[in-house]
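pasting for ref
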Amino acid sequence: MAIPRIGLNTSLDNQRVAVGYGYIDKIRQAGGAPVILPPVSAPAMLVRQLEIVDGIVFVGGPDYDPALYGKPMHPKVELISKERQDYDLALCRAVLARRIPALGICGGLQIVNIAAGGTLHVHVEGHAAGEHKVLVAEGSALARVLQATSLTVNSSHHQAADAAGANLRVVARAEDGVIEALEASDARFLLAVQWHPERMETLASARLFAALVHAAASS
């Protein structure tokens, strides 16, 4: 079986593109070949980028503009660059339309939900740092991948999904009710988690990336 190529969107700061090495390392450990996808503005270029990947990881970063989902600005919001926001949104919509296997992480969950027409809580308290327990819906694809219905995860966010977008369903919550994971409501492979598995040396984290790589290899 050919090694699947897994694309990653990138941060864009001071005219540099970058992606955390943890994402790259976890993809590599799972048997995938990481491919960096810098922002491009031309739709035809984005299409060409997608022609060379078999799966996608949407990575975290600063905040997407609340105007994208009809919410007011909040003092705690730190906006992502307009160039990256436009690219991430176009990339995510294209991935959803083409049913490319995808894994969203933290801000990656948020852009998946926005692209699908969902909304976010613009600010939530108590999730900016530390660890907490997550409860996963029994029978969900996420539970099958993790082989667990509860786990302890890291927490590094101040926004979270509110209304789930089209063809997405909520499959995990923190004990305070904050949404911690979404997945596709049909048979395609699309998982999105609010925590950062690329920063966790756990079997559950390895299983997330392995599931993406397997789905990408099979697509």
